[in-house]
Amino acid sequence: MDKYLESIDRYLDGIMTESEIEAFEKELKVNNELSDAFTLQKDMRTVFSEDEWSSMENSVLKTERAKQIKAYLKSDEVTKVKEAIGEVISERKKPLSRKNFIKKIAIAASILLATTLSYFIYDKNSTELDYGNLLAQEIENLPSLVNRSENKDELLISGQLQFEKKQYEQATQLLTKYQNNTLKKTKALSFIYNGLAYLELNDFENALRQFDFLERSESLQAKKAHWYKALIYLKQKDKVALNKELEIIVTNSQNYKYKEALKLLHRNK
Amino acid sequence: MLENARDIIKEIASGNRRIIDELYLNVFPKIKSYVLKNNGHIEDAEDVFQKVLIQVIARYNTKPFVIQSSIEGFLYIAGTNLWKRELNKRKKRVTNSTVVELVSDDDDLVLSTLEQEKWELFQEKLSTISENCKTLLKFFFKKTPYKDIAVHLGYKSDNVVRQRIFNCKSQLTKAIRNDIRYNELK
Questions:
Q1: How far is A88 from chain B (nearest CA, A)?
Q2: Nearest CA in chain A to B137
């Protein structure tokens, strides 16, 4: 192979004469050994140049190894991992889009209005009022059920849409259907959406069931289950059960809604 | 905290969100910084982060391999390569220098995985040759003129440099070619 190295270098360095180039390229078409040596030298220059990338021909996709990788990429395991990564990213990502910004302003305005009105109607320390505030915050910060990196599920999309339109009955029907269809691969976020929808419908038993599912899931969202259960008891004005959930949350300052749980506990005493 | 790279890959493959979250906290900021510095956006960095995790589990699942460095370092390097690859693809599309055949997302991930393996093989072989050769080849692959290399490294003439580089390249070529993996990745 060394016998070709010099001519390959001269060709790649661009120092061949026109007739030499013509002869070299002609030989390249018919001489497999030269062609192999040429590919390797070209690849070496690309790989070690640091800012370029050596791409492979699509024909490599026909190899056994490529087929094995592709089969694995199509497996349920990879679908599950993609979903988990998508969930971690959306959990960690702060919503910055214009749509979210407008949504935030709208929610903030409605909370302000509700708070102002309630000042005249309710006691300032009303539990009912606090529940509305806390729930609005939850809904405001809910990550989307669908992210762009995964296959879109019609039931999930429609479920989220109905939830956003406050059509909670339709939302629970769609999300429950989605959960029944997906069984073990159910997105944990669907438990939150569905649970909150049931909560809005005052169907506390089903709401609790959803948050039990959430608690048992492997999801990052699982740690939030105690707070959602606390919201149920807050709405039901079940002080004993509420305090029980709040006490679990305040055992660790890293827990979701630690500060709010502390404040509520303090007020309940 | 899992410290063994193999265990971490297994946990990623099982969809363990806690491990993925830890990697997001430790690796994603570095990938993001690299992508943003190199004409990318945050969404590109997120794509790279996802692809690099899928790539590593796909490799491990189909042909187990050993990671010599830390898993974080490994994922960062593989991530920067994925971004280099993407930029290269975009450049080709813009300059239209070659016909870029469209492939499915899965096929593209297969290609990127095999290309990464080839890249690692080349780097591994470069590390087996002498320090002197490595230095000379570093200049050569950066397209530094022979004359400048001679001045910089104190060689008598550019002809001497040319000859030395030729020998070093022969050694490296042989090392790559003699590795069974090279033929599988051709």
A1: 6
A2: A48
